[in-house]
Amino acid sequence: MIIAGLLTVVVLATCKKTASDKVFGGTARIRGVVFYKNITTNNPDTATTAQLTLEKGNDQSTDFTLSLTNGAFDIPLLVDGDYTFNITYYHTIPGSSKSILYQLKTPFFHLNDAQFKDRDTLLLLPTVTASPTLQLTVTDNTNAVVNNAQVYLFSDISTLNKYRRTGAGSVKSGITNQYGMVVFDNLQPTISYYAASYIIRVADTLSNHTTDNKAPVISALSSTVLNTARITIIPDLPAVAFSLQVVLTDQYGAYIPGANVCIYSDKALLAKNRNTCAGSISGSVTGTQGAVNFTGLQSLFYYISAYKVVGKDTLTNKATDQTPTIVLQPNAANTTTVILK
Fold first, then answer.
1. Separation CA 155–CA 128 (nearest Å)
2. How, if at all, do strands 227-232 and 260-264 pair?
3. Which residue among 129, 163, 182 closes a domain?
4. For residue 7, what pLDDT is reported?
5. CATH code (residue 155)
6. Residue 197 sits in the same domain as residue 313
């Protein structure tokens, strides 16, 4: 609660005598609260320690300054006339020793005798930063802000390409707050910066790693005015993988364990090395269910050579080993059944 009488004492105590003579002694009153736009949230917060100077008309001899303690002011006993406010506030960037200067000079407003003017929304915007400063907002592909995302700021592409996930060699790093924002100060105005960002969630990972090296997030920073930028992180595409499962059966459909299976991309090479696996891309032995899995393959078709020595006989798929498999599909269960006779 604001105690008008107490504030009146403060105001009169900080006024020049000429200001008291020209400003006070009337019946008008003005009250309000000073806010500033917090760059780490983009929301208005109370400018608790703002310096507020009231001027009557264009006569600077009427200036007096009120040091606020909770962002609120209540000035009674003003005479009829035109007034303006000059307001100054310094806000320290979280995690930094640097400050941002906020300033506001209001348009002139008129107070009549006995008038009570309640100006409750004086909003200060950032005016001057102590060093080149970047306010970076991270959003997802629905344009929703992403909190708790890791952000690395790089000054060259080669370092970014090598260390985008670990941040080694980055010039700045930070975590976005609940508003999806992170603020970096003490930057260099002549350097272009690239931003790599990601967040690992239960169901997926979001990142901008497919686009983070395409263009700088900011270049030619202003040395004094707050610089702003926005990046979007999207679900990472799963790694493209091609695999093949080969299931061996006999002519009656029974699984054949312990058989050798080899895959080739060249059927002539298979024919030359049939029943030896020489020159094959990969080879393995079937398990109890007659199956073997091959990974790390490509989007190709393959030729399969399989055999098993049973006593003096050798079971093979010689009759069909020159028939290719289907072209393997990415991240899919590519399975083929081979009959040995």
1. 24
2. unpaired
3. 129
4. 33
5. 2.60.40.1120
6. no
- Determine the 3-state secondary structure of 17 from DSSP: helix
The two beta strands, 134-139 and 227-232, are: parallel
- What are phi and psi for residue 117, nearest 5 degrees? -110, 120
Q: Taking a C-beta distance cutoff of 8 angstroms, is the pair 195, 228 a contact?
A: no
Domain check: are 124 and 51 in the same one? yes
Residue 309: how many CB atoms within 10 A of its CB?
13
Choose one of 101, 129, 157: the last residue of a domain. Answer: 129
Q: What's the CA gap between 62 and 20, in Å, rounded? A: 8
Q: Is the pLDDT of residue 3 over 70?
A: no
Note whether 309 and 248 are same-domain residues. yes
Task: Give the type of residue at 168.
Answer: A
Kindly report which listed range (16-25, 188-197, 307-316) carries the lowest average pLDDT score: 16-25
Per-residue pLDDT tens digits for 201-256: 877 889 999 999 999 999 888 888 888 999 999 998 776 778 999 999 999 999 99
Average pLDDT over residues 166-192: 92
